[in-house]
Request: fold
Amino acid sequence: MKLLIKKITYIIFILCSYCSYGEAKIQLPSILGNGMVLQQKSEVRLWGKATPNKKVTIYTSWNAQQQEVNSNKKGDWIVTVTTPEAGGPYTIRISDGEELLLDDVLIGEVWLCSGQSNMEMPVKGFRGQPAAESQNTIVNANPNRSLRLFTVQRAYSSIPEEDVTGQWEKNTPKSVSTFSAVAYYYGDQLQKVLGIPVGLIHASWSGSSIEPWISKENLLQFPEVDLTPAENPQLKYANGTPTVLYNAMIKPLENYNIKGMIWYQGESNSARPEQYQRLFAVWAKQNRALFRSKDLPIYYTEIAPVASPVDRPFQRAIFREAQLESMHEVSNTGMAFTNDLGSEKFIHAPKKREIGQRLAYWALAKTYQLEGFEYSGPIHRSYMKNGKIIEILFDHADDGLNPENEPLVGFEIASEDSIFYPANAEIINGTSRVKVWSDKVAQPVYVRYAFRNFLRGNLVNNAGLPAAPFRMDLRKMDFQNPEKLGWTRVTTFGKLPEYISVYHSPEWIESTRTNAYIAVVDTKKGGSLDVGGADSGVKTPIEFYQSEKRKPSIVLNGGYFANGRTVSLICKNGKILSDNISVVNRLLEGKKTAYYPTRSVFSLYTDGTYHVDWIYKSAQQTYAYDMPALNSSTRPPLSVPSKGFPKGAKVWTAEMGIGAGPILIKDGTIRNSWVEELLDVASGINPQTCQPRSAVGVTQDGKLILFVCEGREQTPDIPGMTLAQLARLMRSFGCVDALNLDGGGSSCMLINGKETIKPCNKYHHQRPVATVLFAR
Reply:
């Protein structure tokens, strides 16, 4: 009965909406209306219903052009129009004999804002829970400003719907008061900085978990999720029922072009952090497909600090940790930290302006490529141990950390017994390093910062943005015995040096059937790595093996190549024989466009240590960088890398190096920089699908990890791995640095000249490659 009433109400609304256009036969979805904002410089879609099998004309005033399209037998029609740079107001006239006029149309930037109650909370606040600065914001809302708002009204459905309920509104006190506060302050910041129209589409439901925002097709890969049909008359909790909010509030928007998304959700999933990471990745991939943008920017908010649940004081901290890891695993995402903004007793943080602005900083820096400001709070990168003192290095703190003249609050430290003590913590000489210690802990094993449901730390960067909470298990930074992770030591390939051991994978890794091998090479006991190959020519791995006078124990395929020669760096005995590719072409808005990526390298330095670096050759000098140039094939190219760009350039001087990419792990943190290195689908890497893979990494105690896995179902039901899975796996072995190698049809590891996995190139035998790694 409830569903019947809902559907009748929905039909009445639609009929009333159409009547507002007089007697016109043209019917448009709610999202297409007077006062809307269309995405600039795009091929945007207009669609609706008309008289069946009739010509529909569409006239757009910005280019004074008219297009024609025929409606089908059901009356459906859709057309694509090209939008110019931001501007307006414009008009659109649509007719099938009777005209419908869309007036006051702006062209600019469109963002979809979604989540649960902390996104839904309006500018005026909830009853009994006010939002900070609400009165001033509401009273000063200027309707002449080019900021437009659309709220998708709450709805749920067991099947995908065609339309939503809502309308475009101007920036008036009335409309602003009931609009999402986080979304409004986000758009407010964008519009002020960009100086162009901004349209915000808000679709949220308080208390919703992530599953209702994901389609049935995408949830099928989660057997633990109950997909009982939502049309059950006993359905009471639409915000917790899988698929129903996606069907009713997101799917109907799929034809509307957006620039990106902001997301504030997670509280309702906080008891299931590991599952949420997987769900979030699927949710992001779903929306990128839905809105036809393979690298759609997605910026999200760390869940609010609050003391509950009291009986599980670390539940929310562990969930925030999972959110932070997702930022490294899901491309083109960023997270706004909120440790300083929460309320101990209320889950709805009142300071929504700061949250919206912090999300906007990410967009302005990464999506709109503005420079000169910090866009993230500090994120721990790596550590050094000096007796009982732990020195922690932070990213996003180039200008130093604060407060320097006050005690740092929120750090805790423990030894093997896991008894934590409040730690002393000091910023080291105005740098981006903090030293942490306690006189009660002689042998530190664990360090954490603000790692509780509610513990307000005070560590910030010079921009005043708070550091992300974290915990560190210093033991995990060392090599992890593969046998303890379910791998089996293999001795069937012949005798190996005592410092080299080989392991075969368990049958299943992360719910995926797997056939993989690793070779562990202990450099502290005599093991070494070098590179084989030249600037031109290719050979199969077995040919490389046979050509070596001193036979290597392990041969692993190396970097990328094309047309019979390497396009990745080769460095032997301190001499560079070949450089990483310096320019790649991608299609941007239909035009061939040159990009200059900082591709990566696995290096052996003269001090005997191995590291990964992003590098670029400029003015006959090869530079290494702390961070890659933030390229994306969906945005205009950045400047050519040089001594001054990106930050942190230093001359790259290594004894040995092999180029490939992307970097999977750097300084103990999963990076997976395939977007920035332009190693996307167009490159053939297919980072987000399961493929055969190969990789090389190093642990903090000097053990090299050489990895290969089979894929493309050379053995039935063995698909391979995604780059995200590979990064997590290499990290599980204790790798602090790791690099993805060519993989795909080139994937091959030989042990004493014998194959491990089945080759998967089209000939089903070893593919000739340009470079290999030798372990001896």
About this structure: Confidence is low (pLDDT under 50) at residues 1-24. The chain has twelve helices and 49 strands.
